[in-house]
Amino acid sequence: MAWSTLQVDRQDSILHVWLDRPEKRNALNGKVLEEIADLFGGLQRDFQSRVVIFGGRGPSFCGGADLGEPPGSARLRASSDATDRERRHVAQLGLRACRAIEEAEAVTLARIHGHAIAGGLA
Q: Is the pTM of this model over 0.85?
């Protein structure tokens, strides 16, 4: 599968997963969380990958939420103009991504460098 916010490389039984938004310090947005959930959820059917090394491209692992998301997108900020429905949707995306990582059959190691802020610590 082609990913727009992740880079995925395989080396035998090791899967290298990179957050690939270095210009945004790998900040999390709805698309990133969806792709993380889809990729790690797919590991339940991937019997080749025994280890996942999860890192970030550029100078930071993850700068937290992308506060510059345009209105109407799955915003990660709890702003006054976000609706309760938007906040709930974003919380569910984050939960889905974290659960997928936790439930993956492969051992997951975080390769953290630079900043790891807020949701980047999850």
A: yes
Owner of token pair 């999850």 = 122
Contact 60, 112 (CB under 8 A): no
Q: How many helices and strands (H and E) does the chain possess?
A: 2, 4
Asked if residues 88 and 78 have their Cβ atoms less than 8 Å apart, the reply is no
Please give the chain's pLDDT, 122 residues, in tens.
789 999 999 999 999 999 999 999 999 998 999 999 999 999 988 889 999 999 999 999 999 988 877 655 555 555 556 778 877 888 899 999 999 999 999 999 999 999 999 988 88
DSSP state of 121: G
DSSP class of residue 86 equals H
